């Protein structure tokens, strides 16, 4: 029996992968309609810090998580009883931008220039060098939430107040030429592998498309993989780790944006385009097995399907826009309510080249509504 904290789409795809490998799964999620509950052997429908539910989870042979803002202490406590990956310490780092950035630099990697702002008095003359910038809350941000663009010291002070004067990071705007991400699978320093970098396109702060292979020189792709592996080693990470990177300036330098201690939206194509998905990797690693081959089998493009493509009257999208293409694969998460901005599913189109896959995915997606 494997346990997972969180039963959203990532937990759901994890559960499917675990079940095909013969495991049984216990999911902890307070939502009675949690997507993973469709497949789980046991759904603990309780709060994430519920002592009874956590005690039940502690009986599992191994426990993992699908979301970033899981209580790191609960992970540490579970680790007293069973195998837990990633560790509570790694999760704590990934969920706090201040810790996260200092670890990225400790690994010898670049981040955007930044200043930690914990109190109003931290905003001063030295803050000017990080303008124009983005003030990001240290914790609880996702899909572009918890971020305010600032151009002047006055705007910075206002933004800090808007954030409720919680600890923040002021990040200088970088000359963004592209965004990529690498999903790393690590058991230990000798058993580590990285999927090919995905080239990511966002709309309204939410990932819209991931194209793989990324249309970047092979040397840059190798560098991205090495950086992600280096970071996973520095953290002594066990499990699946996603590393988001920015491609900056004319030279196309890579800097690390942020990490996620779990499978990532930009790795969903691995279900259809790789021999082992990022979710199968998560199962292997949490059970102490080495990662499977990460090689890409075919060029592809993943497109997210948000609640936006449902009609205002709740009418179903036009699924034949995906399913009429024999090279396209549809994944729906079983969420009952379609809302604007809500991730309801995704589609992956395979093609001979990344360019064609991207084109076809955009075409399918635009015909859904
Ligand atoms: P989230 O947790 O919401 O994913 P990110 O830090 O990844 O937050 O920021 C969301 C998006 O905002 C990024 O994918 C990128 O497009 C843009 N962004 C973030 N930081 C910077 C920056 N320093 N310079 C330019 N663009 C940025
Ligand atoms: Mg991000």
UniProtKB/TrEMBL annotation:
Pathway: Purine metabolism; IMP biosynthesis via de novo pathway; 5-amino-1-(5-phospho-D-ribosyl)imidazole-4-carboxylate from 5-amino-1-(5-phospho-D-ribosyl)imidazole (N5-CAIR route): step 1/2. Catalyzes the ATP-dependent conversion of 5-aminoimidazole ribonucleotide (AIR) and HCO(3)(-) to N5-carboxyaminoimidazole ribonucleotide (N5-CAIR). Keywords: ATP-binding, Ligase, Nucleotide-binding, Purine biosynthesis. This is N5-carboxyaminoimidazole ribonucleotide synthase. It comes from Alysiella crassa. Gene3D superfamilies: 3.40.50.20, ATP-grasp fold, A domain (3.30.1490.20), ATP-grasp fold, B domain (3.30.470.20). SUPFAM superfamilies: Glutathione synthetase ATP-binding domain-like, PreATP-grasp domain, Rudiment single hybrid motif. Signal peptide: none annotated. Homodimer. GO terms for cellular component: cytosol. The keyword Nucleotide-binding applies. Its EC number is 6.3.4.18. ATP binds at residues 97, 136, 141-147, 171-174, 179, 202, 257-258. The keyword ATP-binding applies. InterPro entries: ATP-grasp, ATP-grasp_carboxylate-amine, ATP_grasp_subdomain_1, PreATP-grasp_dom_sf, PurK, PurK_C, PurT/PurK_preATP-grasp, Rudment_hybrid_motif. GO terms for biological process: 'de novo' IMP biosynthetic process. Belongs to the PurK/PurT family. Pfam families: ATP-grasp (PF02222), PurK_C (PF17769), RS_preATP-grasp-like (PF22660). GO terms for molecular function: 5-(carboxyamino)imidazole ribonucleotide synthase activity; ATP binding; metal ion binding; phosphoribosylaminoimidazole carboxylase activity. Residues 101-287 form the ATP-grasp domain. It catalyses: 5-amino-1-(5-phospho-beta-D-ribosyl)imidazole + hydrogencarbonate + ATP = 5-carboxyamino-1-(5-phospho-D-ribosyl)imidazole + ADP + phosphate + 2 H(+).
């Amino acid at each position: 029996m494997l346990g997972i904290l969180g039963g959203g789409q990532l937990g759901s795809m994890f559960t499917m992968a675990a079940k095909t490998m013969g495991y049984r799964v216990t999911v902890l999620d307070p939502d009675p309609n949690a997507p993973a509950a469709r497949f789980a052997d046991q759904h603990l429908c309780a709060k994430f810090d519920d002592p009874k539910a956590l005690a039940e989870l502690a009986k599992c042979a191994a426990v993992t998580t699908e979301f970033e803002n899981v209580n790191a202490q609960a992970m540490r406590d579970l680790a007293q009883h069973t195998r837990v990956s990633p560790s509570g310490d790694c999760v704590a780092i990934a969920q706090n931008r201040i810790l996260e950035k200092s670890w990225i630099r400790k690994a010898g990697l670049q981040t955007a220039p930044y200043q930690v702002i914990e109190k109003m008095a931290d905003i001063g003359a030295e803050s000017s060098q990080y303008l124009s910038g983005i003030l990001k809350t240290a914790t609880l941000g996702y899909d572009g939430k918890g971020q305010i663009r600032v151009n002047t010291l006055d705007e910075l002070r206002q933004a800090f107040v808007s954030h409720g004067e919680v600890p923040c990071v002021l990040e200088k705007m970088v000359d963004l030429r592209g965004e990529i991400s690498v999903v790393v699978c690590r058991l230990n320093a000798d058993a580590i592998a990285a999927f090919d970098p995905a080239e990511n396109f966002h709309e309204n702060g939410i990932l819209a498309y991931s194209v793989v292979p990324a249309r970047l020189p092979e040397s840059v792709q190798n560098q991205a993989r090495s950086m992600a592996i280096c970071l996973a080693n520095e953290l002594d990470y066990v499990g699946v780790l996603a590393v988001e990177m920015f491609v900056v300036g004319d030279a196309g330098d890579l800097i690390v944006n942020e990490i996620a201690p779990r499978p990532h939206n930009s790795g969903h194509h691995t279900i259809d385009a790789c021999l082992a998905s990022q979710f199968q990797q998560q199962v292997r690693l949490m059970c102490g097995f080495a990662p499977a081959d990460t090689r890409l089998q075919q060029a592809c493009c993943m497109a997210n399907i948000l609640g936006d493509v449902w009609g205002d009257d709740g009418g179903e999208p036009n699924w034949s826009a995906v399913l009429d293409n024999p090279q396209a694969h549809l994944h729906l998460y079983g969420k009952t309510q379609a809302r604007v901005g809500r991730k309801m599913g995704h589609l992956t189109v395979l093609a001979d080249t990344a360019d064609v896959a991207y084109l076809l995915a955009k075409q399918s997606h635009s015909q859904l509504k």
